[in-house]
Amino acid sequence: IAVFVCVVQTGSFTAAAERLNLSKSVVSKYVTRLEDRLAARLLIRTTRRLNLTEGGRVFYERSRLGLEVIVSAEEEVSVLQGEPRGTLRVNSPMSFGILHVAPAVSEFMDRFQDVSVDMSFDDRKVDMIEEGFDIVVRIASDLDPGLVARRIGPCCHALVASPAYLDRNGTPRAPKDLADHNVITDQYPQSPWEWEFRPRNGAPVSVPVNGRIQMNNSLAIREAVIAGAGITRTPTFVVGQDIQQGRLCA
Questions:
Q1: pLDDT digits (tens, 9 = 90+) for 67-103
Q2: 204 touches 196 (CB < 8 A)
Q3: Whole-angstrom Cα distance, residue 230 to residue 183?
Q4: How far apart are CA 151 and CA 174, in angstroms?
Q5: Coil, helix or strand for 186?
Q6: What is the pTM of this model?
Q7: Is residue 159 within 8 Å of 235, Cβ to Cβ?
């Protein structure tokens, strides 16, 4: 079809062949095949010029418009590849997203003026393809098949409590000492009341813990711990600054 349109626009098989970098015989063959497929004569060939039949005129106009749409689509895709634009759908765990992803949005928007961000925070494991997310931030040791990941950094955990709580209740020196403390646990782990510790040298140790508070969000747990309600085990990306600034002891 593109060859036929070029023949009409250039006015001859020879000129079309030069523009398309094809031989004149190949150009003629393509047009003949198109006419055979349509079972209609599109061009009236004379020794001096080409004339469109009525059917050829209709087919040319529709085909020309169709090819222009295709070229426009190709240009739009090329522009998208050259400079990001459109809506970027992002999903992140609640606490990590609020503390570390959301603050980065402003700088990202300054760099990419044609991008809009649709961000959701969710601690459940989302189906990236089914739910239409472009980027998913996850704390995980393995990936679903077919996904590609870039490692942002390690996820480390720390036992933390407020200075006021430790002043009142003492500081545990070994995992077994947690039995004498009020522990604030996260509802998501399979065994929230049994914590596993992995010494640098030695086998993992499981320790039963007790407490009167259980929550399903690490930011809420952080606030309770800072207020002196107990001891918790939480990622350092949640409490790192609190440890550095003395609000919590690790």
A1: 999 988 887 777 666 677 789 999 999 999 999 999 9
A2: yes
A3: 5
A4: 32
A5: strand
A6: 0.61
A7: no
